[in-house]
Amino acid sequence: MVSKNSSKPQEKCIGVIGVGSFGTVIANMLAEKNQVMVYARKEEVVHEINSLHSAQGKTLNPKIKGTSSPKEICEACEVLFLMISSSGFQDVVQSFAPHLFPYHLVIHGTKGLCLNLEKGQTLDSVKKIKRSQILTMSEVILQETVVVRVGCLAGPNLSKELTQSLPAATVIASKYNEVILEGQSLLRSEKFQVYGNSDIIGVELSGVLKNIIAIAAGALAGLNLGENAKGLLISRGMVEMVHLSNALGGSVKSVIGLAGIGDLVTTCNSVNSRNFTVGFRLANGEKLDEILASMDEVAEGVNTIRVIKAFLETADLRAPITEYLYRVLFENYDIKEALQFLMKYPFNVDIDFV
Ligand SMILES: NC(=O)c1ccc[n+]([C@@H]2O[C@H](COP(=O)([O-])OP(=O)(O)OC[C@H]3O[C@@H](n4cnc5c(N)ncnc54)[C@H](O)[C@@H]3O)[C@@H](O)[C@H]2O)c1
Ligand SMILES: O=P(O)(O)OC[C@H](O)CO
């Protein structure tokens, strides 16, 4: 877009829905090049954004305007970044649906799964689920709204490091090349590289599934089992991710790319990862309920383990790391015994998917 009076490109208004850890970082990155409007559901957070230029203590670029109105942000912005944890994703998308039109372009950054169950059913009541009862976030957007041009953003993107402007890269995945090009033009900078991928389901699943392995990596670290064991876990974890992703509709190529192996290595090695931290604290004897109650931010891997365990009940597939973590998290199985079992698991071949 070029204004009538100058050759400088006119700034667009880009919307960011959700101002948690990741939403604030992405909003600040977008504000380097364009006007940004952010949506927060609480009026006090909107007031803080507009008067103090921060969101729950996290600094925001003063150019960023806050609103609690889905209508206002959808009218002002054609491009929207959805940065909501998976637990609130479906509710937020439903509340935005009346204000979204086919001209909107929506990119999400959520690394979790939603369920597509009958009214009144829960994971506890059904216990076994099929692929059709699991929704990735792009599938939620397509199911609940008339938006067509949907993308996802995934990769090794720890928000604490992005806040410090440390170098990083991400993947924008979409079936539509224009979504990838738009995401690249909005976010790419000297410090932040943006790759494209057309396999949106595979990229979403890569970001979702690596959280499971990160919980196990945190547990290994908490038990001081060493770097050899971590190498073993990451490599077997990647194989498990490939098979699960395949069964859920993702391609191998995405898992071995930046959003898969790239994010897997980062998250399995960082105390800044919430999922790694859950595993680390479990290994130090804390109970899951205590850990989750003390965390302000979401560790998506915990719910993902429940969802994938229920999926495994209907799939012709073994995923031993996920299955044993489920027993540790939800059936009081001893974490040391689980890890010892996994170390001795009789995997016969190293790589069986190429
Ligand atoms: N923090 C990171 O380093 C990082 C990096 C990449 C991806 N992610 C992914 O991004 C997603 C969000 O992570 P985060 O770190 O920002 O989490 P967070 O807990 O800091 O923020 C979650 C945001 O979702 C909003 N939200 C949740 N339920 C809502 C509801 N019902 N209505 C309105 N708003 C609601 C919260 O208010 C908050 O703004 C997760 O899926 C995470 O896996 C996080
Ligand atoms: O803090 P985590 O464990 O949710 O990880 C954050 C990002 O997914 C890292 O890319």
TrEMBL record:
It catalyses: sn-glycerol 3-phosphate + NADP(+) = dihydroxyacetone phosphate + NADPH + H(+); sn-glycerol 3-phosphate + NAD(+) = dihydroxyacetone phosphate + NADH + H(+). Its EC number is 1.1.1.94. Substrate binds at residues 111, 274-275. NADPH binds at residues 21-22, 41-42, 111, 159, 274, 298, 300. It is found in: Cytoplasm. Its main location: cytoplasm. Residues 14-178 form the Glycerol-3-phosphate dehydrogenase NAD-dependent N-terminal domain. One of its GO terms (cellular component) is cytosol. GO terms for biological process: carbohydrate metabolic process; glycerol-3-phosphate biosynthetic process; glycerol-3-phosphate catabolic process; glycerophospholipid metabolic process; phospholipid biosynthetic process. Pfam families: NAD_Gly3P_dh_C, NAD_Gly3P_dh_N. The active site is at 210 (proton acceptor). The keyword NADP applies. The chain crosses the membrane at residues 12-31. Pathway: Membrane lipid metabolism; glycerophospholipid metabolism. Sn-glycerol 3-phosphate binds at residues 111, 155, 210, 263, 273-275. NAD(+) binds at residues 18-23, 274. PROSITE patterns: NAD_G3PDH. GO terms for molecular function: glycerol-3-phosphate dehydrogenase (NAD+) activity; glycerol-3-phosphate dehydrogenase (NADP+) activity; NAD binding. Keywords: Cytoplasm, Lipid biosynthesis, Lipid metabolism, Membrane, NAD, NADP, Nucleotide-binding, Oxidoreductase, Phospholipid biosynthesis, Phospholipid metabolism, Transmembrane, Transmembrane helix. Residues 199-340 form the Glycerol-3-phosphate dehydrogenase NAD-dependent C-terminal domain. PANTHER family: GLYCEROL-3-PHOSPHATE DEHYDROGENASE, GLYCEROL-3-PHOSPHATE DEHYDROGENASE [NAD(+)] 2, CHLOROPLASTIC. Catalyzes the reduction of the glycolytic intermediate dihydroxyacetone phosphate (DHAP) to sn-glycerol 3-phosphate (G3P), the key precursor for phospholipid synthesis. This is Glycerol-3-phosphate dehydrogenase [NAD(P)+]. It comes from Algoriphagus halophilus. The lineage of its organism: Bacteria, Pseudomonadati, Bacteroidota, Cytophagia, Cytophagales. The gene is gpsA.
